[in-house]
Amino acid sequence: MKDKFGREIDYLRISITTRCNLNCIYCGKADCEKKEQELPTGTICDIVRDFSACGIKKVRITGGEPLVRADVCDIVRGIRAIPEIETIGLTTNGVLLEQYAQPLFDAGLDSVNVSLDSTDGSTYRHLTGADVLDKVLRGIKAAQTAGLSPIRLNAVLMKGVNDDGAKDLIALAKDSPIDVRFIELMPFSGVGEDNDRRVTGDEILRRFPFLRPLDTQENATARYYTADGFQGRIGLISPVSHQFCDQCRRVRLLSDGSVKPCLAFDDSFDLTAYENDPAARQARIREIIFQKPAGHNFGGDKTTHGLNRTGG
Ligand code: SAM
Question: How far apart are CA 222 and CA 234, in angstroms?
Fold first, then answer.
């Protein structure tokens, strides 16, 4: 369906938990929300079914860390059974991906985005608080073996912290058909507000002039580039320096059953009150989507919680 600005909203990002097994320095402290506060599988699938009746065709499962939920494959399987949902993706830190890649593929997952901010062990540990880089790299291999596609590696660069490793991350797209994407550090209260740390997409192009823009750009969120001899692509996601809100297609469902029309603001609207009334829930979903804000306001007022709650 279209929102009041005429944008086609067809993409639902579902944060199935705020729990996380990492503590990335730019993401906000992982909430230790109790499992019982998280929507059960059946309720998530019922809500997604109602969203699909309102025009949602694409779903991404995220968190916190979605793979800490033991029922994550059941959630994928339940969503896969909804005929209007065309693609299901999952965004993970990859720590548990080695054991989940095949079961997720078998449950009907299409693609996976893995957050990988550095290929250097000590830098990775500094950024995430855990010494698990090897597990994540094995998880990426397992995702390739399982047939998940596309596989995208997402990195947040911070000046003086991990930006000297950008060339090693770019190199991962050379000999494999995977995308390596650089997401600009976004400011949420208490995290990511240090503008001096942000590495913009344009700065990456200045540092790596061998990158050439691809003729076809699949959406407004990421600008894709290639280079001689590369099998994969390099993507730049620049929500701060190149705002793309006018072409936003997404809304978010949080793990407590509330809908967040925009990641940049605190506003979220509870759906649990409509538990046994799909028609009323769909009507409420339509109202919320229609009222989606024009765009973020990173320069001004912003949401009070990090992406660990919203899900990226
Ligand atoms: N745990 C999963 C993961 O690590 O990908 C999914 C949740 S995490 C919140 C989703 C994405 O948000 C990650 O790629 C992370 O790097 C990104 N992210 C978190 N905080 C951010 C910030 N302040 N600016 C930019 N990206 C951020």
Answer: 9
- Domain with 67 in it: 11-310
- Closest residue CA from atom 14 of ligand 1: 115
How many domains are contained in the chain?
Answer: 1
Which atom of ligand 1 approaches the CA of 192 most closely? 23
Instruction: Round to whole Å and give the CA distance between 62 and 161.
Output: 25
For helices 72-80 and 97-107, the axis angle rounded to 10 degrees is 20
Residue 5 lies in a domain: no
Q: Ligand 1 pocket: which of 18, 69, 91, 135 to mutate (most atoms <8 Å of CB)?
A: 91
- Is residue 302 over pLDDT 70? no
Q: Is residue 191 part of a domain?
A: yes
Position 4 in a domain: no
Cα–ligand 1 centroid distance for 153 (angstroms): 12
Instruction: Find all residues with CB under 8 Å of 164, minimum gap 6, and list them.
Output: none
Name the pLDDT band for 305 (thresholds 50, 70, 90): low
pLDDT tens track for 171-225: 999 999 999 999 999 987 677 778 889 999 999 999 999 999 998 777 778 999 9
Strands (E), 10-106: 11-15, 58-62, 87-92
Please determine, for residue 227, whether its predicted confidence score (pLDDT) is greater than 80. yes
Query: How buried is residue 222: exposed, middle or buried, by Cβ count under 10 Å (0-12/13-18/19+)?
Result: buried
Residues comprising the chain, all counted: 312
Residue 93 near ligand 1, beta carbon < 6 Å: yes
Q: Is residue 302 part of a domain?
A: yes
Q: Answer whether 312 contacts ligand 1 (Cβ < 6 A).
A: yes
Residue 83: give its domain's CATH number.
Answer: 3.20.20.70
Residue nearest to atom 17 of ligand 1 (CA): 312
Among protein residues, the one whose CA lies closest to atom 11 of ligand 1 = 312
Q: Which atom of ligand 1 is nearest to the CA of 307?
A: 9
